[in-house]
Design a protein that fits this description.
This protein is α+β, with helices and mostly antiparallel strands. It contains eight helices and 13 strands.
Length: 263
């Protein structure tokens, strides 16, 4: 991997020593420049958890991805920069407090002077990594978060407007390999029960909020104010994808490409 090319992709041009300051800056830049998106699933393009392919997609193709892709690629960058990285398996909780399956989400532990939870693949999430300290309230531009040591798992919670705490996901401290997530990655690409096969999404943090394409809705949040627009046509959707995320899709599926090449 060309580290400098990856750093240029996320707009990072500061020293690369493996320190907490560097980790926070890299994490923030990744969140602000690489979108959370599942567009390849709708196009029928298989997502394979190979580090070289993940970096190629994000850096060379200037795309985004979902958790396995984003956190897998970012882990590759961090390891190349000298960080100690541990992949973690997480379960996401819905609004009813029901947990998903193991390996449903990929997060990472980074060990420096202190331990940190890094996660650039959860969509609307903390911009900078969280110190792995139980019950410590940690605030950044995206909100206030805390981690809870629940024994065999850690819980990630986010403060709500009514000052309650919502459980987002929990994770096991056991070290994992990227290949351990292959089964759930395939599930999310193919199962009609996966929310990733039901709706195309592209979302990116901004310094003051977030911009999201969800289906045909363009949602822009800035300084707590939300504006929503329903796009009229597919051409408008592609224009929004280009203008807000810098993504221009080759709209042909792999099958269509094979037919075109053979004709």
């Amino acid at each position: 991997m060309n580290v400098r090319t990856y750093l240029a992709r996320i707009g990072y041009n500061c020293p690369l020593a493996p320190t907490s300051d560097t980790l926070r800056a890299l994490h923030r830049q990744h969140m602000l420049t690489v979108p959370f998106e599942n567009l390849d699933i709708g196009l029928g393009r298989e997502i394979i958890l190979d580090p070289e392919r993940l970096v190629e997609k994000i850096v060379r193709q200037r795309r985004g991805g979902f958790c396995y892709e984003l956190n897998g690629a970012f882990a590759t960058l961090l390891v190349a920069a000298g960080f100690r990285v541990t992949l973690l398996s997480a379960r996401v909780f819905n609004e009813e407090g029901i947990a998903s399956r193991e390996f449903d989400h990929l997060a990472r532990r980074i060990d420096l002077e202190d331990a940190w939870l890094a996660d650039v693949g959860f969509g609307d999430n903390f911009l900078e990594p969280l110190r792995l300290v139980s019950e410590l309230e940690q605030q950044d531009a995206a909100g206030t978060f805390r981690l809870i040591d629940a024994g065999d798992r850690w819980r990630v919670e986010r403060s709500q407007p009514d000052r309650s705490w919502r459980l987002q996901y929990d994770f096991s401290p056991l070290p994992r390999h990227l290949s351990d997530f292959t089964g759930m990655c395939w599930y999310h690409q193919t199962s009609p029960d996966s929310h990733f096969t039901r709706n195309r999404v592209c979302s990116l943090a901004t310094p003051h909020g977030r911009v999201t394409l969800s289906g045909m809705r363009l949602i822009i949040t800035s300084n707590g104010r939300k504006e929503e627009q329903v796009l009229a046509a597919e051409a408008d959707w592609h224009a929004a994808l280009r203008d807000h995320f810098g993504i221009v899709l080759d709209q042909e599926t792999p099958e269509q490409q094979r037919i075109g090449q053979s004709s």
